[in-house]
Amino acid sequence: MALKHLFQNKCPQCGKGNIFINRNLFSFFQLTKMNIKCPNCNYNFFPENGFYWGAMFVSYGLASLEGLLVILACSWYGNELFDYVNLLIIISFMIILFPLNFRLSRIIWLYIFGNKIKE
User: Fold this and answer.
1) How far apart, in whole angstroms, are the C-alpha atoms of residue 95 and residue 98?
2) Is residue 5 a contact partner of residue 11, using CB atoms and an 8 Å limit?
3) Which pLDDT belongs to residue 56?
4) Which residues contact 32 (CB under 8 A, 6 or more apart)?
5) Long-range contact list for 25-29, CB < 8 A, 24+ apart?
6) Three-state SS for 25?
7) 33-61 pLDDT, tens per residue?
8) pTM, 2 dp
9) Domain residue ranges of the chain, discontinuous segments joined by +
10) Could you give the 3-state DSSP secondary structure of residue 118?
């Protein structure tokens, strides 16, 4: 059930409140706006200063996995493994998937380490 709530951007404690204010992934002006507390159960989404610094490692892992999948798909379709066209395709996918990676990495980090920090 937690995996379902993770992909729906819901609170890790109650599973009902939204973590991000705007649910639209491609609203670039409100991409990073998060609720400070859960509107439903008052769970603190910012347990300490700098809490989300570790989420950049999760984002790096997600982007690496996506890049690997894209390069495997390109090689499966007949392109050479190391080619400038493949590099441009990977960079394009990274740019397109940036909003998803940003939000997903913060949510994964909150789900893993958010309950371990007590206020």
Assistant:
1) 5
2) yes
3) 92
4) 102
5) 25/99, 25/100, 25/103, 26/99, 28/99
6) coil
7) 888 999 888 888 888 888 899 999 999 99
8) 0.82
9) 2-116
10) coil
